[in-house]
Amino acid sequence: MDREINLINYLPPYIKRYREIQQITNTENLELQLLADESERVKNNQFIFTCNETGISRFESLLNITPEAEEPLDLRISRVLMRWNDMTSYTWKTLVQKLDILCGETNYKISSDSDNYMYTLNVHLDMYGQLDELQNLIAYMIPANICMFINNIIDCSSIGSIFAASGLAICDEFTIIEE
Predict the structure, then answer these.
(1) Cα–Cα distance between 89 and 18 in angstroms, integer?
(2) pLDDT band, very low/low/confident/very high, at 174 (cuts 50, 70, 90)
(3) pTM surpassing 0.70?
(4) How many whole angstroms from its chain centre is CA 44?
(5) pLDDT > 70 fraction of the chain, expressed in percent and rounded
(6) Which residue from 106, 102, 101, 90 is spatially nearest to 142, judged by alpha carbons?
(7) 3-class SS of residue 45
(8) For the chain, where are the E strands, in sequence order?
(9) Quick one: pLDDT at residue 105?
């Protein structure tokens, strides 16, 4: 609801004071507000960035994308943008642009061993399904003679206190990886 509909403001002052006219315009305001809200939803669903669940499902059907159950709208929009803006050039610059869209400009780092055709991509993706979309992108864009290792690093920390009268505490650090 971006705009508020109030028809009484458009009437001359001498008509505004009648109760019948006030009731009629209040009733019409409700219907016109519904129409204005629906018009705003239709306008927003024409664009990928502003669409809701209904609009993004339309774009997904155009691109033959089947979303997973319970996927957030942000991830679905990101996936549609990746495929909508798909280019056929398989250059390093294009790969970096696509990674910027999917991961964000500061959420990844690529290290290379060009002599052995091996690259390592460290990403920080925490939304469900982003890693699958990244793997699809890499499989689609990287030539078969290049080996790309993807590490999804999710940083987390916990702060707390432990009170014990006596005992032994062992602390280990571990890394969770997906293979």
Answers:
(1) 68
(2) low
(3) no
(4) 16
(5) 89
(6) 90
(7) coil
(8) 108-113, 118-123, 147-152
(9) 85
Would you state the structure tokens that stand for residue 37, as one six-digit string? Answer: 């809200």
Helix (H, G, I), strand (E, B) or coil at 8: helix
Confidence of residue 88 (pLDDT cuts 50, 70, 90): low
Identify whether the C-beta of residue 119 lies closer than 8 Å to the C-beta of residue 96.
no
**pLDDT above 60 (res 167):** no
The residue assigned the tokens 């991830």 is 75
Give how far the C-alpha of residue 109 lies from the chain's centroid of Cα atoms, to the nearest Å.
Answer: 21
What value does the CA radius of gyration of the chain take, rounded to a whole number of Å?
A: 27
Strands (E), 31-170: 108-113, 118-123, 147-152
Q: Which two tokens stand for residue 103?
A: 């991961």
Q: In which residue are the tokens 């290379």 written?
A: 112
Residue-range domain boundaries for the chain: 7-44, 90-179
